[in-house]
Amino acid sequence: MSAHFQVDEDKAHQGRFRLKAGNGEIVAVGESCPTKANAERGCEAVKCAAADIVEAKAA
């Protein structure tokens, strides 16, 4: 399975997302949101904000 977002309700009935790697490991967790729809928008924000990996230069 490839990396994917999982959106559900937490124990407080708030929306929350998790980003899972292809092996099922959770690599990121979003904050609680008032609704699952807000959590889905959080997933989209993470996708849009994803950046290229760059190597840091020594000082």
UniProtKB/TrEMBL annotation:
User: Which InterPro entries does the record match to this protein?
Assistant: DUF1508, YegP-like_sf
Tell me the ranges covered by the DUF1508 domain, including all copies: 10-52
The transmembrane segments are none
Pfam families, per this entry? DUF1508
Organism, by scientific name, is Streptacidiphilus jiangxiensis
Query: Can you tell which superkingdom this protein's organism belongs to?
Result: Bacteria
Provide the protein name. Answer: DUF1508 domain-containing protein
